[in-house]
DNA sequence: TATTGTTATACTCTATAACTATA
DNA sequence: TATAGTTATAGAGTATAACAATA
């Protein structure tokens, strides 16, 4: 049985400034994602919101802004880009007139599917090239990152 | 079908849109990092460059722009913010007059240390709260992310 | 008054295009 | 000509402050 990857390097070296390594790697990977933007398409923040509406259905501005940890004012501008482009629409909540529900249009649903496949193609290629163990480590770390982002 | 370590968990479940999960988690964690910016300090891109200069010594514009995968023009503006604020200085390369070496000032070195500790404190807290296995998965994934970002 | 959302304004980050200076 | 770097301009993304509408 092969030794676990953690034993191939001194633990101290791995964990020395693990936070700094995580921050650096996440930042560079995020910028790499962003650089894959197809010409003329939505930016990464707008596309992330569109994808969320596509997957999870109509949501209020507050729900969207809390999920992405941006201010309500910032999210308002992001959804403005979506509605201006015809990918989403506003609906007043009939039970609470202060709330606005955002939903995808047919064009928005179509774009959400197409854009994701196009933008993630290079990432999927690289993940496929990894070992099953590497993918398992990434899956585990991804879940942890997501919960850390929520904390 | 081959036998391997992934038999412990269903491969299909692990790999179902792993790319999408990675993109989403990285994006949200990146925004979480960014939201921790202390008042009046540098932005995340500028601080990342300052940290790099602090750790690795003087570098040219091209080296910096390739490491962060941004255009030379973008990096030029980032270092402009650093030099304007007095955290870095320009030096002509004596051996090749076209090149410019950027280095930290004393103020830059001081800020690099203080800002990192301040900005990563909450992340370090969360990493410490994890199991050693979780941290190992994160360390492994972080190295993979870094190499994917370079590819 | 409290909550929900918007608009106004400004800053960071990034890109492309056009430019200067050096090799 | 080729390489290294800068400046001009534009757009996405974000924040705070000030505002309006509804509960």
From TrEMBL, chains A, B:
Q: Name one GO molecular function term.
A: DNA binding
Keywords attached to this Swiss-Prot or TrEMBL record, sorted alphabetically, are: DNA-binding
Give TM regions. none
Q: Which one Pfam family would you cite for this protein?
A: MarR
Q: Which InterPro entries match?
A: HTH-type_Bedaq_tolerance (IPR052526), HTH_MarR-typ (IPR000835), WH-like_DNA-bd_sf (IPR036388), WH_DNA-bd_sf (IPR036390)
Q: Gene3D superfamilies from the entry?
A: Winged helix-like DNA-binding domain superfamily/Winged helix DNA-binding domain
Could you tell me which residue ranges the HTH marR-type domain spans? 15-150
Put simply, this protein is called DNA-binding MarR family transcriptional regulator
The scientific name of the source species is Kutzneria buriramensis
């Amino acid at each position: 049985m092969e030794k676990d990857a953690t034993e191939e390097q001194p633990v101290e070296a791995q964990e020395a400034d693990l936070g700094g390594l995580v921050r650096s790697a996440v930042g560079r990977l995020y910028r790499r994602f962003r650089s894959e933007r197809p010409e003329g398409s939505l930016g990464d923040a707008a596309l992330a919101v569109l994808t969320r509406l596509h997957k999870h259905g109509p949501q209020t501005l507050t729900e969207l802004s809390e999920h992405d940890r941006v201010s309500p004012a910032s999210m308002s501008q992001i959804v403005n880009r979506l509605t201006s482009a015809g990918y989403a629409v506003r609906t007043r909540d009939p039970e609470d007139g202060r709330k606005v529900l955002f939903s995808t249009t047919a064009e928005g649903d179509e774009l959400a599917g197409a854009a994701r496949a196009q933008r993630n193609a290079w990432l999927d290629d690289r993940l496929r090239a990894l070992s099953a163990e590497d993918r398992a480590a990434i899956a585990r770390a991804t879940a942890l990152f997501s919960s850390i982002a929520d904390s």
